Amino acid sequence: MIVQPPDIDDRTAEEVSRQAVELIKLYATEWKEFDPATGRARGVSAALTGVFARFAEIIIQRLNQVPQKNFLAFLDMLGASLLPPQPARAPLTFSLAAGSAVDGLVPEGTQAAAPPLEGEKAPVMFETERELVVVAAQLASLFVRDPAQDKYADLAGILSASSEELIFQGNRRVEHILYLGHNRALGFPAIDDLILDLKLTPRPSDGRSLAWEAWDGEEWKSLTVTDDTDSLQKSGAIRMGAMKALPPVAINEKENRWLRCRLLTPVTSDTEPRKGMERASQLPDIEAIRIIASINRFGLTADAAFTDQTAIDLSKEFFPLGEKPGFGTAFWLAQS
Asked: Whole-model pTM above 0.85?
């Protein structure tokens, strides 16, 4: 930081004029050309004191530049000199004309004008240093991911220059969700007991919290489970009890009947433990998953029956293997 020397005299023309009037009143008592209410000079006296004050202000400004002049003389004695004038450089932004669908070329040496400086009329001219291709593609979205805090941010507002945002810093939690889908096992009208049998690679946890949920057609409903895996730290079973058939829903454009497990603990990429967070190196490895659905249904009627390739009318009495069964004759029953 450059420390500027203090001013030798910091008075302004207004202050000099006011002091001059006070001194005139003191040393020239016969002078009466001033306003009794405000004490300011009037008429010719006001003009003379104003001219005097302005000249005094100019002298004060010059006097305050003496330290800088002496400093430049000192640098000159040391053999230092001012840098020669350098061409100014400024970033320029080029945009394609509205409706343009192809890229545009800005040749080297293309001139661009900046508004005139204060007190000047001529604009400041710049030239491009090299050739530039203005592409038709435009940024559509801008996201930030902060792995240490397990957060992300949508910074689309920056693209339209409508807001100022902190970059490299997330402001929303990153969701970590495991989806499990099975159309048949999760589609039975009434399931007495649903069990997930998981084989895991044993790995300690930093204090993991999970939530198991099922889609009910409108929203994800929380499930009460009995977790033998201790929040996916070891192999075991997760018992979800009785449930009805789950309606299908599309997840990542794949329609199925879904269960899901949400990790409620934020994940950090740090290698050292952090309070309230799970290290990524401690996340579980799942080797295999089985879905076991226990179904108990009674009094069901068959939808169809066959003896070999011959359909059977279930509304009448019939011989399941035909009137003259032979070796290899098969009886088939179907119920959905």
From this structure: no
